[in-house]
Specification:
By secondary structure, this protein is an all-alpha fold. It has one domain. The protein is built from eight helices and two strands. A two-stranded antiparallel sheet has the order 1-2. The longest helix is centred in the N-terminal third of the chain and has 19 residues. It is globular and about 40 Å long.
């Protein structure tokens, strides 16, 4: 691509599909972005955070053989004793819809019955992931930071409010290192001029 005023071609690094068009069909996600007043650049950063978290959580598959974690975002889903993060996220998603006067998704009741994130569509899992984070205390500044491209905010939102900081110190360190690498890569599209898809021109 040639940019006016420049005599050489500047390569554009395409963003993953998930970081551009895949998230734009969700009414809930649009409502979250509108709530923060995100522009296109900030919205793209949130999309990349969502895609990056999916890569961190389920690159190795959507069924964890060592726990009840399931789905793209690896929500713990065991019934009975202990915390069922999947049920908690479903409740938060319903509450957010009601708070904003939006129709509660019909699939929520079925999800509570089957209890398996893998039976949800990608968009449903994304809505669940976003609503679960949005409804937690102290996440507003992190969402805003992510919109502005703050990698530290992305790491903190993931580690403190999704990953939960569980596991051994070694496991926590590995998760933080991986999130820093993934989110750092996703936010490396910085530049002064972007095209309509958020891709760096210069």
């Amino acid at each position: 691509m040639m940019i006016p005023g420049f005599s050489r071609e500047i390569p554009i690094k395409d963003l993953p599909l998930e970081a551009t068009d895949a998230h734009r069909g969700s009414n809930l996600l649009r409502a979250v972005k509108n709530n923060y007043g995100f522009n296109e650049f900030q919205s793209g950063n949130l999309d990349r955070f969502i895609s990056g978290t999916a890569e961190i959580e389920s690159e190795g598959g959507t069924i964890n053989p060592d726990s009840s974690a399931r789905g793209i975002y690896q929500f713990l889903s065991a019934k009975g004793g202990g915390q069922n993060a999947f049920d908690t996220a479903l409740n938060r998603l319903e509450r957010l819809h009601r708070n904003w006067g939006m129709d509660v998704p019909e699939w929520l009741d079925g999800a509570r019955e089957h209890g398996d994130p893998n039976l949800l569509s990608r968009e449903q899992q994304e809505d669940l992931f976003v609503a679960n984070l949005y409804q937690q205390k102290g996440t507003d500044r992190l969402f805003r930071g992510i919109g502005d491209g703050d990698v530290g905010a992305a790491i903190d939102l993931y580690m403190d409010h999704h990953h939960g900081g569980g596991g051994s110190p070694e496991a926590r360190k590995a998760a933080r290192n991986r999130s820093g690498r993934i989110y750092g890569d996703l936010y490396s599209h910085g530049g002064l001029i972007r095209d309509v898809h958020g891709r760096t021109l210069i």
